[in-house]
Design a protein that fits this description.
The protein has about 270 residues and is of the alpha/beta class. It is about 40% helix and about 15% strand. The protein folds into 2 domains: about 10-240, Alpha-Beta Barrel (TIM Barrel), CATH 3.20.20; about 245-270, no CATH class. An 8-stranded parallel β-barrel has the order 1-2-3-4-5-6-7-8, surrounded by 7 helices. Bound molecules: 3-methyl-2-oxobutanoic acid (KIV). 3-methyl-2-oxobutanoic acid binds near residues 48, 52, 210, 220 and 222. 3-methyl-2-oxobutanoic acid (KIV) binds near residues 90, 187, 210 and 220.
């Protein structure tokens, strides 16, 4: 008899039903097995292996240097840790922008090699054909509008998007086009809450907000931000639910002190 745990992950159908029933969708990023297991045990709905990996785990200034190999490596680890949550893998910069063919092949690698169930990509109407072709290949796509960090140099900085009427109109139209192209949900990053509400009401697929107010169908945060691990600049939309930076420092300093003074290991942690 097999002793393996049966993996029954949430599906995109479950996620779409949550919008219909009015149940809010919870999503967090994870980059490794340990964190994915913990949040899966807490019944998170969606785990995103975000390309924020570049900033919070790999120490880059932007997400631009993140590669397919980086993303596949970390998605595999997350997938080993999560038995219940839907897993979304972020397509890194230049893995889907060069051609539709490359986009489909790279998207497929996340399902074939890394055990993800879906992918996310940034961009509006200019990627609707890409979204359509990836979706038609059997790979669910989460879209991402508003502040799209892979276009940071084009946007001129990490700023709130869609404040002016024409910019807001374009984001609404993009969202509708991406839904028509087959996206199963859309992340809305750093846009005014009124605009996010209008988009949420205009779409039949769920919106997942980050810095987009309470009216989205779900919310996402970067796990390192939520846990207060990094001391770097914290954006206004981040709520720190813990301060692990100081907790970790306390534990590490304690350990160093005990090692230096010969108090660790004591008899409880030694073999006779
Ligand atoms: O990479 C990431 O973590 C993301 C979220 C901020 C949505 O794209």
């Amino acid at each position: 008899m097999s002793t393996q745990t049966k993996i029954i992950r949430k599906t995109i159908t479950d996620i779409k039903k949550m919008k219909a029933s009015g149940e809010k969708i919870s999503m967090l990023t994870a980059y490794d097995y340990a964190m994915a297991s913990i949040m899966d045990e807490c019944s998170i709905d969606i785990i995103l292996v975000g390309d924020s990996l570049g900033n919070v785990v790999l120490g880059y200034d932007t997400t631009l240097p993140v590669t397919m190999d980086d993303m596949l490596h970390h998605t595999k680890a997350v997938a080993r840790g999560a038995n219940n949550a839907l897993i979304v893998a972020d397509m890194p910069f230049l893995s889907y922008q060069v051609s539709v063919e490359e986009a489909v092949r790279n998207a497929g690698r996340f399902l074939k090699e890394a055990n993800a169930q879906s992918v996310k990509l940034e961009g509006g109407r200019e990627f609707s054909e890409t979204v359509r072709r990836i979706t038609d290949s059997g790979i669910p796509v989460m879209a991402h509008l508003g502040l799209t960090p892979q276009s940071i140099h084009q946007l001129g900085g990490y700023k709130v998007q869609g404040k002016k009427e024409d910019a807001a109109r374009k984001i609404i139209e993009d969202a509708i086009m991406l839904e028509e192209a087959g996206a199963f949900s859309v992340v809305l990053e750093c846009i005014p809450e009124g605009l996010a509400e209008e988009i949420t009401q205009s779409l039949t697929i769920p919106t997942i907000g980050i810095g987009a107010g309470v009216h989205c169908d779900g919310q996402v945060l970067v796990i390192n931000d939520l846990l207060g691990i990094n001391e770097r600049f914290t954006p206004k939309f981040v709520k720190k639910y813990a301060n692990l930076n100081s907790e970790i420092k306390k534990a590490v300093k304690n350990y160093i002190g005990e090692v230096k003074h010969g108090n660790f290991p004591d008899s409880e942690h030694s073999f006779k």
